[in-house]
């Protein structure tokens, strides 16, 4: 079986590697155009492109696939490339471009998507972040037959994993990426033998995981300590939850809910001795957050005691969003 692969970030690269390692021929990879990255803002190839080039796989980087969009000539060229590249199926994972029906209908066996949630929950761009932020007990991978709607296609395989109290988007991403690679290889093996049975997504329980914005990362201490803890974990590693104290933006990397309450206003430091982390009053004193790892501007991520040596804090100071 010949597999065209479309994807961009590390999540997708792990799936592509699993497909290559399983012995499937990949005649073409589609990925996003190179983007500026790093302090020097040099153009950088995506994780998928880097892996493809390592394996001498041809790479295409169209800016659009929509024939009726802003770049119809680019899209037409990409369509012709797909039609002229012998293949049986296209596998898509975190590609970042909309695939119109004109693309979905080209592969003989259609297009299959690796999605990082238990559909129909968390359709859309940021399913891992939103699952942690919402306090979901579990998440997982859904292998889905693609159609024009946003993550609305029938499900081919679905497997759950728990979300623990310490999981971050970074840790959950790695688990789901590995699981996605395993499941797509299983799906391709099944497709080689016979068509897979598809299950229509239920209408109940649909949620949309909107794209993460930097503005969301500001911590509002009027929320509960549990909500703030989830936000810190959901926005680790990007865009990093943060708060302002006396004009300095501090990033919060690790925290937990502490026992007890407080008489102090939201955002007030209760204890900054470092022995128990930094204790902060939340939701008007109804709950308390214990902060364990922080970062000052230009500094490194540090455990509380190390952080306080270079950036002392004291009880009564107030963090603001």
Automatic annotation (TrEMBL):
**Which positions fall inside the Formyl transferase N-terminal domain?**
1-188
The reaction(s) catalysed by this protein are: L-methionyl-tRNA(fMet) + (6R)-10-formyltetrahydrofolate = N-formyl-L-methionyl-tRNA(fMet) + (6S)-5,6,7,8-tetrahydrofolate + H(+)
**Pfam families per the UniProt record, alphabetical:** Formyl_trans_C, Formyl_trans_N
Origin superkingdom: Bacteria
A GO cellular component annotation here is: cytosol
Q: CDD domains per the record?
A: FMT_core_Met-tRNA-FMT_N (cd08646), Met_tRNA_FMT_C (cd08704)
What EC designation does it have?
Answer: 2.1.2.9
Keyword Cytoplasm carried by entry? no
- Binding sites annotated in the UniProt record for (6S)-5,6,7,8-tetrahydrofolate: 117-120
UniProt keyword list = Protein biosynthesis, Transferase
Report the GO molecular function annotations: methionyl-tRNA formyltransferase activity
Q: What class of enzyme is it?
A: transferase
Taking every annotated instance into account, which residue ranges of this chain make up the domain Formyl transferase C-terminal? 211-311
Matches recorded under PANTHER family: METHIONYL-TRNA FORMYLTRANSFERASE (PTHR11138), METHIONYL-TRNA FORMYLTRANSFERASE, MITOCHONDRIAL (PTHR11138:SF5)
In the record, the note on similarity to other proteins reads: Belongs to the Fmt family.
Protein task? Attaches a formyl group to the free amino group of methionyl-tRNA(fMet). The formyl group appears to play a dual role in the initiator identity of N-formylmethionyl-tRNA by promoting its recognition by IF2 and preventing the misappropriation of this tRNA by the elongation apparatus.
Stated name of the protein: Methionyl-tRNA formyltransferase
Source organism of this protein record: Undibacterium baiyunense
């Amino acid at each position: 079986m010949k597999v065209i692969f479309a994807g961009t970030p590390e999540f997708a690269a792990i799936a592509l590697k699993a497909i290559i390692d399983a012995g499937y021929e990949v005649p073409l990879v589609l990925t996003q155009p190179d983007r500026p990255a790093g302090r020097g803002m040099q153009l950088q190839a995506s994780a998928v492109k880097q892996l493809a080039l390592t394996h001498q796989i041809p790479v295409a980087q169209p800016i659009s696939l929509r024939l009726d969009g802003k770049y119809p000539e680019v899209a037409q060229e990409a369509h012709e490339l797909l039609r002229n590249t012998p293949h049986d199926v296209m596998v898509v994972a975190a590609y970042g471009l909309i695939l119109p029906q004109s693309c979905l209908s080209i592969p003989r066996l259609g297009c299959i998507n690796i999605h990082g949630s238990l559909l129909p929950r968390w359709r859309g761009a940021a399913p891992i972040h939103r699952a942690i932020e919402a306090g979901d007990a579990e998440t997982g991978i859904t292998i889905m037959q693609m159609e024009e709607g946003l993550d609305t296609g029938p499900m081919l395989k679905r497997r759950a994993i728990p979300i623990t109290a310490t999981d971050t988007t970074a840790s959950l991403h790695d688990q789901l990426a590995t699981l996605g690679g395993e499941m797509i290889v299983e799906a391709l093996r099944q497709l080689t033998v016979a068509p897979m049975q598809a299950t229509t997504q239920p209408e109940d329980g649909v949620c949309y995981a909107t794209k993460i914005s930097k503005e969301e990362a500001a911590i509002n201490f009027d929320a509960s300590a549990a909500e703030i803890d989830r936000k810190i974990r959901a926005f680790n590693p990007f865009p990093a939850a943060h708060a302002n104290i006396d004009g300095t933006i501090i990033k919060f990397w690790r925290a937990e809910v502490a026992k007890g309450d407080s008489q102090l206003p939201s955002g007030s430091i209760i204890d900054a001795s470092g022995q128990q982390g930094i204790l902060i009053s939340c939701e008007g004193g109804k709950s308390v957050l214990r902060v364990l790892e922080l970062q000052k501007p230009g500094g490194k991520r540090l455990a509380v005691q190390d952080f306080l040596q270079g950036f002392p804090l004291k009880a009564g100071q107030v963090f603001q969003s």
